[in-house]
Specification:
By secondary structure, this protein is α/β, with parallel strands linked by helices. It has two domains: about 160 residues; about 40 residues, no CATH class. The strands form two sheets. A six-stranded mixed β-sheet has the order 1-2-5-6-7-8, sandwiched between helices. Strands 3-4 form a two-stranded antiparallel sheet. The longest helix is centred in the C-terminal third of the chain and has 19 residues.
Length: about 220
């Protein structure tokens, strides 16, 4: 089933084809909201990196277990926009993966913690930064994490991230890590320090709603 340029039903999840754009706009809004003195007028929808501003570039990505991504994709595509047969098949697979749907909302199990995915993503993005990305005065990486991050993890994340970055000629100035439903962290790799940004959940949820509205307005793909 194809989802390119899929019309958006305002009462359903965004189709998968808008996932990347949604993440980029969400990251843009979060950076501009919580760091207004550093991030102003970021432009989304560009490539290599995903966001650009005056003298800076921000690459946006995410980490999540494979089964989690499969479950979300099934829910946002076949279950939400498919026919009755596709919906039934998607529902069975979601249940098999450990999730369930209650009142048309996907309820997923707690994800297995594997922070190695974070370091794999960081290294992959560093390789691309040094090979075919535009280099700015300031280069950042923004990661949405579906893997729970505890405060006890922060020092080790900073240590290993700094160690990985040191192997490359050009590195990221900071890595921003947002655990969905939790906190936003900045790992200042040049200053060798980290910060926890106090971003109340309600504020972030409003930014996510705004990001969706921007996509809906841009594409004007409302259900006919």
């Amino acid at each position: 089933m194809g989802y390119k340029n899929k019309k958006i039903d305002p009462e359903k999840p965004l189709p998968k084809c808008y996932e990347t754009e949604y993440s980029e706009i969400s990251a843009k809004l979060m950076l501009e909201k919580f760091f207004p003195d550093r991030f102003v007028g970021l432009v989304a929808g560009v490539d290599k990196p995903d966001l650009c501003g005056e003298g800076m570039g921000v690459e946006v990505t995410s980490i999540s277990p494979r089964y989690f991504r499969e479950m979300v994709n099934l829910y946002s595509e076949d279950y939400s926009y498919g026919d009755s047969q596709q919906r039934q098949k998607a529902y069975k697979q979601i249940r098999k993966l450990g999730g369930k749907i209650e009142e048309q909302i996907l309820v997923h199990p707690a994800t297995n913690r594997n922070l190695n995915d974070l370091y794999v993503v960081l290294e992959n993005k560093l390789k691309k930064l040094n090979k075919n990305y535009k280099i700015f005065d300031k280069n950042f990486l923004f990661i949405f994490s579906y893997v729970h991050i505890f405060s006890r993890d922060l020092a080790e994340i900073l240590r290993l991230s700094t160690e990985i970055v040191s192997k490359y000629e050009t590195g990221f100035d900071s890595v921003f890590l947002y655990y969905l439903g939790g906190s936003l962290y900045e790992f200042d790799l040049k200053g060798n320090r980290y910060f926890c940004i106090d971003c109340e959940r309600y504020s972030v949820e409003r930014l996510f709603v705004e990001a969706r509205k921007i996509i809906e307005s841009k594409h004007r793909l409302w259900r006919q």
